[in-house]
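can u do me a favor
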């Protein structure tokens, strides 16, 4: 069956779910490598927040999702940890907070937290960052990362991310986020159903994992 799929790759369509608020470039690099290698495979990307992606996978509306981990792993899925990232905040470089070497949630309590979310997931995302992450201040919402960063540059708040991106215009600073003298971390994973383990799903997962490994080696 797998050989037939490869031989008739012009018929292949891979549905991939992508975490809406992830601000790294590993996924984009993996997608470029995959499509360069498998030129006859079509890929459809669906963005979503955590629960939206989980629902797409659960209901067989996507083959593979790149998501953060917010629940225990299920035996119904292949669960691959791609990276455990130390969180940082993105904040306007002119903010007094931007002068700190590291920040805590207590330091940020009077500054709104900007969440990238669909309209339907606003309450879910706010509850997660309030109850699980532990931020007790106000929240603002953006539909995408571009809008969120415009809010940041405008001095409207900060965003919690997982990478130390460099911004060409120096308008935004990334500062490590700590709790009780330890970095706050977030786990990013690849998920797909065990009964939907195709050649292309496995291949994209391997390429994506390699991109995260490359990023880690460069950072160290």
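np, heres the sequence
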């Amino acid at each position: 069956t797998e050989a037939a799929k490869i031989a008739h790759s012009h018929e292949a369509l891979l549905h991939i779910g992508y975490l809406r608020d992830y601000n790294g470039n590993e996924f984009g690099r993996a997608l470029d490598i995959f499509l360069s290698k498998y030129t006859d495979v079509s890929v459809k990307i669906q963005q979503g927040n955590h629960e939206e992606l989980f629902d797409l996978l659960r209901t067989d509306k996507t083959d593979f999702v790149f998501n953060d981990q917010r629940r225990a792993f299920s035996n119904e899925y292949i669960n691959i940890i791609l990276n455990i990232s130390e969180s940082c905040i993105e904040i306007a470089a002119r903010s007094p907070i931007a002068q700190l070497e590291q920040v805590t949630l207590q330091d940020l309590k009077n500054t709104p937290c900007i969440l990238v979310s669909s309209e339907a997931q606003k309450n879910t995302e706010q509850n997660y960052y309030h109850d699980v992450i532990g931020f007790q201040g106000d929240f603002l919402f953006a539909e995408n990362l571009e809008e969120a960063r415009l809010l940041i540059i405008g001095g409207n708040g900060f965003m919690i991310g997982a990478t130390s991106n460099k911004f060409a215009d120096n308008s935004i600073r990334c500062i490590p986020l700590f709790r009780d003298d330890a970095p706050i971390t977030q786990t990013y994973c690849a998920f797909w159903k065990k009964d939907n383990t195709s050649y292309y799903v496995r291949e994209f997962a391997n390429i994506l994992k390699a991109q995260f490994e490359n990023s880690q080696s460069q950072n160290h």
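The chain has six helices and twelve strands. hope that helps!!
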